[in-house]
Write a structure and sequence with these properties.
- This protein has 366 residues and is an alpha+beta fold.
- The protein folds into two domains: 53-246, Nucleotide cyclase, GGDEF domain (Alpha-Beta Plaits, 2-Layer Sandwich); 252-358, Thrombin, subunit H (Beta Barrel), CATH 2.40.10.220.
- The protein is 33% helix and 35% strand.
- The protein has eight helices and 17 strands.
- The chain has helices spanning 4-21, 27-42, 68-74, 77-97, 121-146, 181-192, 202-208, 344-358, and strands spanning 55-65, 101-106, 109-114, 154-169, 174-179, 198-201, 213-214, 218-220, 229-237, 242-243, 254-267, 270-271, 276-284, 287-292, 301-308, 313-327, 333-341.
- Strands 1, 2, 3, 4, 5, 6, 7, 8, 9 and 10 form a ten-stranded mixed sheet that branches. It has a six-stranded antiparallel barrel with strand order 11-13-14-17-16-15.
- β15 and β16 form a beta hairpin.
- The longest helix is centred in the middle third of the chain and has 26 residues, at 121-146.
- The radius of gyration is 23 Å and the shape is globular.
- The termini are far apart.
Amino acid sequence: MNEPAVTDALRQIRDIVAEETGATLPSNACARVEKVLEGALKRPSLALPPADDLAHDVTILLADLRGFSAVSASYPGATVLALLNRCFAAMSEIVLRHGGVIDKFMGDAIMVLFESPGADEAPLAAVSCAVDMQLAMEGVNAVSRGQGLPELHFGIGINTGRVISAVLGSELYSEYTVIGEEVNVASRIESFSLRGQVLISESTWKRCNGFVQTGEPMDAFVKGKSKLVVLREVLGIPSLGKAVPRHEQRRSARVRAALPFSYRMVVNQVVIPEARRGRILDIGYYGVLAEVPLAHSPFSEMVLEFDLPLVGERMTELYGRVVKTTPTRGKAAQVGLEFTSMRPEQKAAIQLFVQLLIQGAEAAGD
């Protein structure tokens, strides 16, 4: 090690661990801590701009664990915290390696900022970071599976735009952060992403065009925007030989069914009391194709309720998001729904139901 500051910090960390736990820090852990410290010394900081020019361009990455509320409700607190710490420790190393600055942790979410003198350097770094985060989750989940614990999957949204940097608060407490419409857009993009998915805005994509491989553009309604926002899913970075992992949750077997169900829309995280009825046409482990009385726009959220007659279970408070909608006769439509949060018992019941249908059993329905 060439940096005296790193050597001294590592020594102090090893002493603290020994005092608090009575055990020495393993050599492999020391190497990881050393990399984090070296990265922290080298990473660029988001310097506060001059008072007369607080606005500047930043790329914002927001990552949130999908379905984590169901996990936290089903496991002891110590287990939940261990899962989070393992996940965020790995993510923090990746963020530092790509020159990002962690703005804040928000429960099961993380906000990261990328800024650089070059116009395109920050977006490239942010997208590279997001892809590496999704790749790293494969290793994190391998450890969880070995311990009999649930897997975790990030949904990630990235946006590039002009923000205001400022120190907010008072003498009692203050923090340096960024604010502005582009931060809100990044948050909305993240909320649209599914498990294991990376979505980027048009502004980020334009700066990364030729570097990143993406899916077809998608139009999304973002609150506060008068026009639809164009999003793209990041599939990989060909020049680096990296591809975002495709999870079984997004390509499980689907079988025909005829299940009546009721649903309520979720608007701004509030469940609307009015219940509507529809029919599930086919079902998989992690989603359904349904017929509903009204067409709903992509990324709309709803709470579902229906019976699984073959297994004698009733699904309640099962959240889903519209990923595709196809108009039919009149106002009716067919919608593809991705489950966004399932309790372990719901997941097991749906998987059993699908497996029974695959093997030839017939679903009961009206």
